[in-house]
Write a structure and sequence with these properties.
This protein is α+β, with helices and mostly antiparallel strands. 48% of the residues lie in helices and 14% in strands. The strands form 3 sheets. Strands 2-9-4-7-10 form a 5-stranded antiparallel beta sheet.
């Protein structure tokens, strides 16, 4: 499919009304009909989405992956990911929530980086008892959403959402190698590094600066990342920069030097050399490749 760089719109949830519940549950078909062409164009959100498709058919594009939709597929869309619907006639559920509503504990950090930020786990098919479980959670969330003036409403919605996500994450795990180790200090410290990386990757921070921010040596940080994902921190920093550069090259009309500056490079030629070394193509060649 030919890709034409375009301006990417980012949508927000109750940005002008922080007093509102930072959570919404929609009928997917009604929402798509109301959103019209906007949702069919590549766009991003400053919040998280859970999209549950009831029926097979069509595709859904998330960043650089096109998912073939099967019955009872659930997609997990992280904030800042770029995605697009391909059809207005879809049935299912759509959940929106802001990070401020969700992130309050170590468990939430694990969910954020396991279920929403792991490419191989960004979709899930549910059947049988798991389908009944998911349906029950939606029913409870719908009921509670309708009681928005009730005592403890926000807390009930928050804990229902977290419980729902924990159960979905359990379905992702197929064996002992997939177990989340909440008591493993390496796992938690690694995810804290990921949090810092998301916050600072455009600032050109060195491994030393990330290690200092975490109160540890570069050797310790490297030991942690290698133990958890088998890659040193410098590689993870580079991968995050490359991901953002690819998004901007694919989905925006920005010039190469503008992209370089946007992700923290003062010199466009240094960005070009960095990108080609990591991707095997220059930024221009990569953009042309997407347009072929």
């Amino acid at each position: 499919m030919k890709i034409s760089p375009q301006h990417i719109v980012q949508y927000h949830l109750h940005k002008a009304h922080p007093e509102k519940l930072q959570f919404e549950l929609y009928d997917l078909n009604a929402y798509r009909k109301e959103s019209g062409e906007k949702a069919a164009k590549p766009h991003s959100h400053s919040y998280y989405q859970i999209i549950w498709f009831f029926e097979s058919g069509g595709t859904h594009t998330v960043d650089f992956t096109r998912f073939d939709i099967k019955a009872n597929t659930i997609l997990f869309i992280s904030k800042d990911q770029i995605h697009a619907f391909d059809d207005t006639d879809v049935k299912g559920w759509l959940i929106h929530f802001n990070e401020s509503f969700f992130m309050h504990s170590e468990v939430d950090i694990f969910l954020k980086y396991r279920i929403f930020n792991t490419p191989l786990k960004s979709s899930l098919e549910i059947t049988g008892e798991n389908l009944q479980m998911a349906t029950s959670y939606i029913s409870l969330l719908k009921k509670e959403q309708a009681q928005n003036n009730s005592f403890g409403n926000e807390e009930v919605v928050r804990y229902l959402l977290k419980s729902f996500l924990i159960n979905l994450e359990r379905l992702h795990r197929k064996g002992p190698n997939e177990l989340l180790e909440l008591n493993n200090p390496y796992e938690l410290r690694f995810l804290q590094f990921k949090e810092l990386l998301e916050e600072h990757y455009k600032k050109g921070f060195s491994v030393r600066e990330y290690a200092d921010a975490m109160g540890m040596s570069t050797k310790t940080l490297s030991t942690i990342t290698k133990a958890v994902v088998h890659r040193p921190p410098l590689v993870l920093i580079s991968e995050r920069l490359i991901l953002e550069a690819k998004r901007l090259l694919k989905f925006t009309p920005l010039q190469i030097n503008e992209i370089a500056y946007k992700i923290g490079f003062e010199d466009a030629s240094n960005f070009g050399k960095f990108f080609k070394r990591k991707v095997g193509r220059s930024p221009k060649e990569y953009r042309n490749y997407l347009s072929d």
